[in-house]
Amino acid sequence: MRMAKQKKPGKKGRDTQDAIDPQAQAEAMARGMSESAQQIWLAGVGAFARAQSEGNKLFESLVREGMGFEKTAREAAGHQAEAMREAVESRVGQARDRANETWKRLETAFETRVAETLGRLGVPTRADIAELNAKLDALAARSPAPTRRAPARKAPVAKRAQPATPRKTVGKSAKSPRASAARRPRTS
């Protein structure tokens, strides 16, 4: 047979106390929550007071940081814009050079063809004319100076013709036989 255990008196007292104190526990919990809510409220009020006092300082520091960032951004954008402008100018310059070269080639080809065509037609070139002028100058230098002649006489000026006078028209006095014949009815 077994012996029954004896219960310790300390445990029984605690069990009874725990069972009796739910209200005390609720009050303690409510008190703890109230204190916690009070602390949260005070922390919020403290944060608001600090934000008010440091708000201007914070705002001014944010403005300074913003200005610094804007300056940096503008400088970067300016450098990029300058690089783009230089690239565009370079491309435009290259295109202009190519267009000028093409134009010069077209001009040369045109001048060559015109000179060839004029040569086929027998039109003298500048070089031919310069050569002829040189020959004429050489001939003029060899021959003696011509004597002066008297100026040529002027031909007499022809008189102006007078305008023709209008002709007189002869009036019809009698009716022509044809006109009267045209008016007669035909008999057929």
Automatic annotation (TrEMBL):
InterPro entries assigned: PhaF_PhaI (IPR008769)
Compositional bias per record (Low complexity), positions renumbered to this chain: 139-164
Coiled coil ranges: none
Lineage: Bacteria, Pseudomonadati, Pseudomonadota, Gammaproteobacteria, Lysobacterales
Compositional bias per record (Basic residues), positions renumbered to this chain: 1-11
Identification of the protein by name: Phasin family protein
PANTHER family with a match to the protein in the record: SLR0058 PROTEIN
Organism: Marilutibacter aestuarii
Ranges where the record places region Disordered: 1-32, 139-188
